[in-house]
Specification:
- The protein has helices at residues 3-11, 23-33, 45-50, 52-57, 71-74, 101-107, 126-145, 150-153, and strands spanning 16-20, 38-41, 61-64, 79-82, 86-88, 93-97, 112-118, 122-123, 171-175, 184-190.
- It is an alpha/beta fold.
- It has a single domain, classed as NagB/RpiA/CoA transferase-like (Rossmann fold, 3-Layer(aba) Sandwich).
- The chain is globular.
- The structure holds iron/sulfur cluster.
- The site of iron/sulfur cluster has 14 residues, from helix 7 and helix 8.
């Protein structure tokens, strides 16, 4: 996928793109940009894998329920960091959520939002990105939580649009553009496979 095309398609939507060959370079970039701020982090295996929490927490007030912290505090922060389930080359950003904390925090509230994603999250267009979010990211997340849902109990793993009470997919956020309330929104693309 051509990163220049992705950059252009994000730019008219008001969303920036920064590309890094390695996770270490991406962490250094965010560590420089985010200083002395309250920072919320959503549930994200990508953020966990790159070790961003340790870097930021030494000089910011970081709230992340996956380690220590409350979701309510994360959702009141000036800066919010999340991953994405899929990024379309055409520029749409997609997340599926269960509780809603991640999609709500990235849609409204924070002044700056950074989406940290590995190259494995990229898809050619919106339809393929949505397919990825539903059939690759969501079943892997369901497996991580050990839910009794057909995407976990049946093979091959794929979404069955289930009616299970344990269904993790309850909300879908498609960012067509940067919300007006957000000052800065940037995709941090790392040229490694990260998260789901
Ligand atoms: S809707 Fe149900 S089957 Fe589909 S990915 Fe989500 S939990 Fe799995």
């Amino acid at each position: 996928m051509d990163r220049t095309i992705l950059q252009e398609n994000l730019a008219w939507r008001g969303i920036g793109l920064a590309v890094f060959p390695t996770r270490e370079e991406a962490v250094r970039y965010l560590d420089r940009k985010i200083d002395g701020a309250s920072v919320g982090i959503g549930g994200s295996m990508t953020v966990k894998e790159i070790g961003l929490y340790d870097a930021l927490s030494s000089h910011n007030e970081v709230h992340w329920h996956m380690l220590a912290g409350k979701i309510a505090d994360a959702n009141r922060s000036e800066v919010y960091i999340s991953s994405l389930n899929a990024v379309a080359e055409t520029g749409e950003l997609i997340n599926i959520d269960g509780a809603g904390n991640r999609v709500s925090a990235t849609a409204y509230g924070a002044k700056r939002v950074y989406f940290v994603v590995g190259r494995n999250k990229l898809a050619e267009n919106f339809e393929k990105a949505l397919w990825r979010a539903r059939n690759i990211a969501a079943p892997k997340n369901a497996a991580r939580f050990g839910t009794n849902t057909p995407c976990v109990t049946q093979t091959p793993p794929k979404c069955h649009d289930c009616q299970s009470p344990e269904r993790i997919c309850r909300e879908l956020l498609v960012l067509w553009m940067k919300p007006r309330s957000v000052t800065e929104m940037e995709v941090i693309l790392i040229e490694e496979d990260l998260g789901y």
